[in-house]
Amino acid sequence: MTQLPTLRQLRFLQALADEGSFSRAAEITHVTQPTLSAGIKELEGILGATLVERGARGATLTPAGEAAVARARIVLTEAEDLVHAARAAGEPLSGPFRLGVIPTIAPFLLPKALPAIRAAHPQLELFLREDLTHRLVDALKDRRLDAALIALPYDAQNIETVSLMEDEFLFAAHRDHPLADAERLTPDRVSADALLLLEDGHCLRDHALSMCAASRPGEDAARSDFAATSLHTLVQMVKSGLGATLLPKLAVDAGLADHLDLVIRRFDPPVSGRSIGMAWRKGSARAEEARALGQDIKRAMGG
Predict the structure, then answer these.
(1) CA distance 247 to 208
(2) What is d(CA 72, CA 65) in angstroms, rounded to the nearest whole number?
(3) How many Cβ atoms from other residues are within 10 Å of residue 190's Cβ?
(4) What DSSP string runs through the chain?
(5) Using CA atoms, how far apart are residues 65 and 18, in angstroms rounded to an integer?
(6) Residue in 170, 147, 145, 184 with CA at minimum distance from that of residue 268
(7) What count of other Cβ atoms lies within 10 Å of the Cβ of residue 245?
(8) Domains in the chain, start-ordered, CATH in brackets?
(9) Residue 55 forms beta bridges with which residues?
(10) What is the spatial order of strands in the sheet that 245-248 belongs to?
(11) Are 197 and 245 in contact (CB under 8 A)?
(12) CA-to-CA separations, 116 to 77, 95, 120, 222, 279, in angstroms, rounded
């Protein structure tokens, strides 16, 4: 019978690939350096190939090592999925759950949703990561996250989503802005090149530009002299009279623009800027838990 590597040996190899150092890999796997080194040697013997080149500056994977660690990651994540699937069958939403959230949602939704989630699932250990959508999607695909709260629509292969709630776009401007007291505010009165927007990489920027393009056909250019890294920076620039912007109602309801003396107006008719949804890797053992967690969040937000 063919001798097979152990999960422990594969975990050693993965840690060494991630850290590039025997000492750091030993530290994160909670073993001594000689134990980790011996485990790697045993793995090389089982596979019949040199996986690691040891040098003064650390450890470097050989081509065989690169191929082995890629497969090791799959084996380890499949083993984790086995544990999660068994646990979910007996007691769903218990134990560790890694949830990603984009920055234009996290500070406005989580303070209200997290207490409700803790009350509903006291055995759940929720680990949160805030990042841009494309990086969260990459983490879902690599199985470093179990699910993510993102803005929809967002097209990504092998990612499944469910919409939880609609998030309306509101117009925000200084009181001296020409549209601040317009009798009727319609989307076609707002030009993308006159708006302050978030920097590239934020899906909220893309959704705002899509709204402008839909209401003003042929327009696809955004203002090029300013781009904010956060909604908090954005509203401060609007307060300073640098221009107007579009804000998600979720953020406004959470107090983003409170005490800034800005004009916040709804469009007539109202404009749905984005849909807030839950995303997970297609085929994930935690798909049903992701759906259930999404419904908990929806209820907590009054949906």
Answers:
(1) 9
(2) 10
(3) 23
(4) ------HHHHHHHHHHHHHSSHHHHHHHTTS-HHHHHHHHHHHHHHHTS--EEEETTEEEE-HHHHHHHHHHHHHHHHHHHHHHHHHHHHSSS-EEEEEEE-TTTHHHHHHHHHHHHHHH-TTEEEEEEE--HHHHHHHHHTTS-SEEEEEE----TTEEEEEEEEEEEEEEE-TTSTTTT-SS--GGG--GGGB--BPTT-HHHHHHHHHHHHHSTT--PPPSS--BSSHHHHHHHHHTTS-BEEEEHHHHHTTTTTTS--EEEEEEEEEEEEEEEEEEETT-TTHHHHHHHHHHHHHHTT-
(5) 12
(6) 184
(7) 26
(8) 7-87 (1.10.10.10), 93-162+280-300 (3.40.190.10), 166-275 (3.40.190.10)
(9) 58
(10) 124-130, 95-101, 147-152, 263-281, 159-173, 245-248
(11) yes
(12) 29, 17, 6, 39, 20
Task: Give pLDDT tens digits for 24-51.
Answer: 999 989 999 999 999 999 999 999 999 9
CA distance 241 to 243: 5
SS (H, E, C) 231-282: HHHHHHHHHCCCCEEEEEHHHHHCCCCCCCCCEEEEEEEEEEEEEEEEEEEC
Record the tokens describing residue 263, joined without a space: 């004009």
pLDDT tens-digit map of 48-81: 999 998 876 778 899 999 999 999 988 887 887 7
d(CA 41, CA 276): 48
Q: How far apart are CA 167 and CA 104, in angstroms?
A: 11
Residue 259: which region, alpha, beta or left (left: phi > 0; alpha: psi -120 to 50)? left
pTM for the full predicted model: 0.74
